[in-house]
Amino acid sequence: MHIRGDQARLVVGGRLDVRSAADARTVLHSAVDDGAGDLVLDLSELDSWDATGLGVIMGAHRRAGRCGRRLVLRGVPPQMQRLLVATRLHRILAIEGGIGVESLPRV
């Protein structure tokens, strides 16, 4: 997993899973705490995530809300969009451009 960017925009790549969760959490929390306004999390380079990775995203979302900020997901890959829809988290998280639920392939 790799994360690059600043307090306004971060690009996450690789795998966001149990092995990378602690490092990702640290970077995301620092970005939330040190910035202002929306924090855009670009997931277009993300290969996969597991429940732990999804928990990291949700934790950053909650922390951003407590800091008066908003976490915005950008470039969410289709397989991860399906997971967000299945867990109904697409209704809670800010997703740039939204998720066209009707256009997602059924699994």
From TrEMBL:
STAS domain ranges (all copies): 1-107
Coiled-coil annotated spans: none
InterPro entries xref list: Anti-sigma_ant, MlaB-like_STAS, STAS_dom, STAS_dom_sf
Record-level Gene Ontology MF annotations: anti-sigma factor antagonist activity
Pfam families noted in UniProt: STAS_2 (PF13466)
Family membership: Belongs to the anti-sigma-factor antagonist family.
Name this protein carries in UniProt: Anti-sigma factor antagonist
Organism of derivation: Streptomyces longispororuber
